[in-house]
């Protein structure tokens, strides 16, 4: 089957530890687009936080697509047209925010140019001996401003693409089931990093977004290759014909992947694409 689309998670996959796209990977992805491949970035990030990387990959020239918020929104990068948008309605979002008050977690919601939090000074997460200032990281990644709202549930009057819950890994592992329990029948929730647990609308994930926008374009799952590293990539790697786990991926993803490539610091994407596209051209008799 001829490959027609390349889908890439960002953090831990497309981006190396320096949060950069390596030159080899960048060139390989631009070359793939020049050969007619549809490029899709599929991330837990807000749409705005994906723009700079899409520009590096020249996705405006080749009809590139951005799947953001773990699949709740899809945007045409060149035109900024929204092709798919499934949000959490205000009453349900308020209920989640009220529920979260009983847990020792940091909550983030986003609208426009702002990320809203309860306390901008309470943002430190300890993980593997490193301190992460999670609000600062999220704000700087998409050029957002931080805004305090002592009670997020009270101030909320707009639908949300996602609700981000941050806490230290041990705490989230111990409490994520209780955090999710009241909403299992109405929302989707998943780990997107060891210290992030995120809510989206019901039945929303990366695979659902890909099906919504790529299949109407005549691209079947068998024609798609997807790269990922985390638990929020499971749905898309099982959906596509070729699911590639990065060398640095979590064990659960490697178990369900079609194949495993080198890590995000070793140009795993570029090396796997070289092999896949060579096979593709051979099958075409070129």
UniProtKB/TrEMBL annotation:
SUPFAM superfamilies: HAD-like (SSF56784). It comes from the Bacteria. One of its GO terms (cellular component) is cytosol. One of its GO terms (molecular function) is phosphatase activity. This is HAD phosphatase superfamily protein. It comes from Brochothrix campestris FSL F6-1037.
């Amino acid at each position: 089957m001829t490959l027609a689309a390349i889908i890439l998670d960002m953090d831990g996959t497309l981006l190396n530890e320096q949060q950069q796209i390596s030159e080899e990977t960048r060139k390989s992805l631009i070359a793939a687009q020049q050969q007619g491949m549809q490029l899709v970035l599929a991330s837990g990030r807000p749409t705005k936080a994906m723009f700079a990387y899409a520009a590096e990959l020249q996705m405006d020239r080749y009809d590139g697509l951005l799947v953001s918020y773990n699949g709740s929104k899809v945007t045409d990068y060149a035109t900024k047209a929204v092709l798919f948008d499934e949000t959490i309605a205000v009453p349900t979002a308020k209920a989640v925010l009220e529920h979260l008050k009983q847990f020792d977690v940091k909550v983030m919601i986003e609208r426009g140019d702002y990320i809203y939090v309860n306390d901008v000074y309470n943002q430190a997460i300890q993980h593997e001996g490193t301190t992460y200032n999670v609000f600062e990281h999220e704000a700087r990644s998409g050029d957002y401003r931080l805004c305090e709202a002592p009670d997020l549930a009270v101030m909320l009057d707009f639908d949300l693409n996602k609700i981000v819950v941050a806490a230290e890994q041990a705490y989230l592992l111990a409490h994520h089931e209780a955090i999710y329990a009241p909403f299992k029948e109405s929302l989707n929730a998943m780990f997107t990093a060891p210290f992030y647990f995120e809510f989206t609308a019901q039945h929303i994930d990366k695979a659902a977004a890909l099906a919504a926008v790529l299949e109407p374009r005549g691209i079947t799952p068998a024609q798609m290759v997807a790269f990922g590293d985390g638990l929020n990539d499971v749905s898309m790697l099982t959906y596509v014909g070729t699911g590639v786990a990065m060398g640095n991926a979590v064990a659960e993803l490697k178990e369900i992947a079609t194949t495993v490539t080198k890590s995000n610091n070793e140009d795993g994407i570029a090396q796997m694409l070289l092999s896949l596209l060579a096979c593709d051209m051979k099958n075409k008799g070129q």
